[in-house]
Write a structure and sequence with these properties.
The complex is a heterodimer of chains A (83) and B (572). Chain A has three helices and no strands. By secondary structure, chain A is mainly alpha-helical. Chain A has one domain (4-78): Non-ribosomal Peptide Synthetase Peptidyl Carrier Protein, Chain A. The longest helix of chain A is centred in the N-terminal third of the chain and has 13 residues, at 4-16. Chain B has 18 helices and 28 strands. In chain B, 52% of the residues are buried. Chain B is globular and about 70 Å long. In chain B, the strands form six sheets. Chain B has a nine-stranded mixed sheet, with helices on both faces. In chain B, strands 17, 18, 19, 21, 22 and 23 form a six-stranded antiparallel sheet that branches. In chain B, strands 4-3-5-6-7 form a five-stranded parallel sheet, with helices on one face. Chain B folds into two domains: 11-383, 3-Layer(aba) Sandwich (Rossmann fold), CATH 3.40.50.12780; 458-558, 2-Layer Sandwich (GMP Synthetase, Chain A, domain 3). Chain B is α/β, with parallel strands linked by helices and 572 residues long. Classes of the chains: A mainly alpha (83), B alpha/beta (572). Chain A binds chain B through residues 15, 18-23, 30-41, 43-44, 47-48, 50-51, 60, 63-65, 68, and chain B through 61, 100, 125, 147-152, 154, 277-284, 302, 306, 309-310, 460-461, 511-512, 514-515, 518-519, 522, 527-528, 530, 532.
Chain lengths: 83, 572
């Protein structure tokens, strides 16, 4: 089964980069501060994580810092027992 | 050292004595003279002795910094104007700026104006459909962009034969360029010392900012070069800028705040301003203020509430002592945020109110005036502002009674028309007043208090989003039979988009479908227009004539009385 780190990275690349956008997104690429995912789009990323992993992420934990890279998101998911 | 005497020392005295003519005189302008925003923001500052003064301190999300003096601004805006002219762009042509907050956006804006063309800034997060709607309405001649946004343009280029030039500011490999694409590099371009600025006068069109309404497509509010008179003096009085200030307006020039107070106002005052081209995190923002010793900070309630959410510990890691004045624009600033800023920064955020059509501040709190937390403040001097009755649209003067904010036409920054849409423009005026579409009341002391929109337009994080545009896009999703988009209350953004969706036969509601619909709208229109919640319903409330009753859905979201539903066709 695909691990969370790769699943999140694949999703970000697929959903938040336009076809033809040649920016490189890796595990440690800044997503929020780097302007790839804005604060509104963060909501759809949160819904993706909640739906895929059947979890509820409280608003207090859904901060720009927690979503600022795939690595940060993976750390957040660990708190919900997702690896 | 700062002179701590505020630019406006008494609101009452200023209001009594104020004339627009006195502002013209202060700027050395006489009716009929040449007036060009590009000149006022660049060459004029050099003529006044500010050539070597820093005009722009720009920083990206990696922390890289670029500095530009007013002389750099003068020369490089000449370069851009010259380049556009050499391509064949003419005065009156619409030139779109579709970029993140890079230096080329700020300088490009002024270069376009020097050429006499009309600047059409658009929010770079717009999806291809939102972009097309606005370019098609304006029949835009050229678009200046970054290579990461080029794919969106390529998908719609074939439907825009009027768009002749796609100018990419960060492409380095000419073999990547396709049809109509040109490369312009600000760092390596020829520095043009002298350029014949277009001989614009007061009513020459300058800027086209698109804004959304309840019905129909977004409308292009067209402004003129004379607007600089308003933008100069409101920046001076409401934002209290002084010669030595370091100013930061956090707004994106894709929206009117980012041009009126992120370009024109500060630079017409000869002020050094900072730009941070980075997504929002509290630590980033505080670091930026600390690093550049920002003194005046003009931001938005959504951002302020996000900083509140982050807590005080993050602030304590930074030295915020350079700050001396804070102001806010967008949706109304709640009292809690004002009190919070007083506690953590030792000063209150001063709320301001205005909109795309007004071009400059209408109601504001001023440094010399007591702030009532949660209030919008008082009308700007020189502007006749009042309330009109919600139903009759006739002016009234009763304290504490809610009406629609209205302004007597005639202030310099007022929009002059909606592009190609004079009919809708004319409808904004009644009984000799321009109706803002926002409801408020006035208290015994003359302070305005925001109540809400007078229509179905959704104000999310200070940006107006039209429900019609969202509903039209939703219908293009294969699973959607009909839909309604309304604003639902949100503690961070004031309102966010909520979509009510009835599915076609064969489609079943699910969390995955909700996510698919959200992403569909995000990519097609913009992240702002993306529903943050999708509620699947069997059918939508409609009138007997078949019109969807959004107000019924909105009232339920806001826990309000539904009102008259005698025309309702179906049960909800």
């Amino acid at each position: 089964m695909e691990n969370a780190k790769d699943a999140v990275l694949d999703y970000v690349r697929k959903e938040y980069l336009e076809d033809g956008d040649d920016r490189v997104v890796e595990y440690d690429t800044p997503l929020i501060s780097g302007g790839i995912v804005d604060s509104f789009s963060m909501v759809s990323l949160k819904v993706f994580l909640e739906t895929k992993y059947n979890i509820q992420i409280p608003d207090a934990k859904a901060t720009p810092e927690a979503f600022d890279s795939v690595n940060n998101i993976v750390e957040l998911l660990k708190g919900f027992g997702v690896n | 050292m700062f002179n701590f005497m505020h630019n406006m020392t008494s609101y009452e005295d200023t209001f009594k004595d104020f004339t627009w003519k006195s502002v013209e005189e202060e700027l050395g302008y006489k009716p009929g003279d040449f007036i060009n925003i590009g000149d006022y923001c660049t060459d004029r500052n050099c003529r006044l002795g500010r050539a070597e003064k820093k005009a722009l301190i720009w920083q990206d999300h990696h922390g890289n910094v670029k500095n530009y003096t007013f002389d750099d601004l003068r020369v490089l805006t000449n370069s851009i104007a010259q380049y556009l002219k050499s391509l064949g762009v003419k005065s009156g042509d619409r030139v779109c700026l579709f970029m993140d907050k890079v230096p080329e956006l700020y300088l490009g804006f002024l270069g376009i104006l020097k050429l006499g063309a009309i600047a059409q800034p658009l929010y770079s997060a717009f999806g291809s459909e939102s972009l097309f709607t606005r370019l098609d309405d304006a029949k835009t001649t050229a678009i200046i962009t970054q290579k990461k946004h080029v794919p969106k343009i390529r998908t719609i280029l074939k439907d825009m034969d009027y768009l002749k030039y796609v100018i990419v500011v960060d492409e380095t490999d000419p073999t990547h360029s396709k049809d109509k694409e040109y490369i312009f590099n600000l760092d390596t371009c020829k520095r043009v010392e002298s350029f014949d600025i277009f001989p614009s006068t007061a009513e020459t069109p300058s800027v086209l900012h698109y804004t959304s309404g309840t019905t129909g497509k977004p409308k292009g509010a067209q402004h003129v070069h004379y607007s600089v008179i308003s933008q100069y003096i409101t920046t001076k009085y409401s934002l209290d800028v002084k010669e030595d200030d370091i100013y930061w307006c956090t707004a994106d020039p894709g929206w009117v705040t980012g041009t009126s107070y992120g370009i024109i106002g500060p630079w017409a005052n000869g002020i050094t301003q900072c730009v941070l081209d980075s997504g929002f995190t509290a630590d980033n923002w505080y670091s930026f203020i600390e690093k550049h010793k920002i003194t005046i900070w003009y931001s938005a309630p959504t951002a302020i509430r996000a900083l509140m959410k982050e807590g005080e510990e993050t602030i304590k890691k930074h030295d915020m002592s350079s700050l001396r004045y804070l102001a806010s624009i967008g949706e109304p600033l709640n009292a809690e945020a004002v009190l919070w800023s007083d506690k953590v920064f030792g000063m209150k955020f001063h709320d301001t109110f205005w909109q795309t059509e007004t071009g400059s501040m209408v109601v504001s709190n001023y440094p010399c005036m007591k702030v009532k937390p949660g209030s919008m403040g008082k009308p700007f001097p020189g502007m006749e502002v009042g309330l009109v009755d919600i139903k009759t649209h006739k002016p009234f003067d009763k304290k504490g009674v809610v009406g629609i904010i209205a302004i007597k036409p005639g202030w310099p920054a007022m929009f002059r028309t909606y592009w190609n849409n004079k009919e809708t423009y004319d409808k904004k005026f009644e009984n000799g007043w321009y109706l803002c579409g926002d409801r408020a009341s006035i208290d015994e002391d003359g302070y305005y208090w925001f109540v809400g929109r007078d229509d179905d337009v959704i104000n999310t994080a200070g940006h107006l989003v039209g429900p019609f545009e969202i509903e039209s896009a939703l219908l293009e999703h294969p699973a959607v039979a009909e839909s309604a988009a309304v604003g639902k209350p949100d503690p961070m953004n004031m309102e966010v988009v909520k979509a009510f969706v009835a599915l076609k036969k064969g489609s079943e509601p699910s969390k995955m479908l909700e996510l698919e619909i959200m992403n569909f709208i995000r990519k097609k229109l913009s992240p702002l227009a993306m529903p943050q919640e999708v509620e699947f319903v069997e059918s939508l409330p409609k009138t007997r004539s078949g019109k969807i009753m959004r107000r019924v859905l909105k009232a339920k979201e806001w826990g309000q009385e539904i009102g008259d539903i005698s025309t309702l066709e179906n049960d909800m």
